[in-house]
UniProtKB/TrEMBL annotation:
This is TerB family tellurite resistance protein. It comes from the Bacteria. Residues 23-139 form the Co-chaperone DjlA N-terminal domain. The lineage of its organism: Bacteria, Pseudomonadati, Pseudomonadota, Alphaproteobacteria, Rhodobacterales. Coiled coil: none annotated.
């Protein structure tokens, strides 16, 4: 279903993604972080849908459709590097901080921080070019501290 999209992500020098594909890549990254601990909790699903609706100005129905597509893409995608590289190239640094905040919202949605989620957050932050310090600040903002 996503063969062309995955082929573009895997290209040695990928083209910048159109907005719709960038939305899909970001949402798939949110799904990947939610699934990284082996428990794709209902709280995480609701958070992803809410983030998609708010970030992209989507109706609840549209956000759910995007999330369903992202879940399918995430299941087919070979690695996290492709998502983050495409997002990094499509999104300015300040907005990538918003991506990190969105990822932290998903990680923290179920009230449990798992070692797999922490490792994926470190990897995603690094690949997005966001420093550990800025990622930590983003996490604290989401935690309310």
């Amino acid at each position: 279903m996503f063969a062309d999209f995955l082929k573009r992500l895997a290209a040695p020098v990928p083209e910048p993604l159109p907005d719709d594909d960038a939305r899909l890549a970001l949402t798939a990254l949110l799904v990947r972080v939610a699934r990284s601990d082996g428990d794709y909790a209902e709280e995480e699903r609701r958070m992803i849908s809410r983030i998609a609706a708010e970030r992209f100005g989507l109706s609840p129905f549209e956000a759910q459709k995007l999330q369903s597509e992202a879940e399918a893409l995430e299941a087919e995608a070979p690695d996290t590097v492709r998502f983050t590289r495409s997002i990094k190239e499509a999104v300015p640094y300040e907005e990538r901080l918003g991506v990190i905040e969105a990822l932290w919202k998903v990680v923290l949605a179920d009230g449990v921080r798992d070692d797999h989620e922490n490792a994926l957050m470190r990897l995603a932050s690094n690949l997005l070019g966001v420093s550990d310090v800025d990622s930590g600040r983003a996490r604290r903002r989401i935690e309310g501290g």
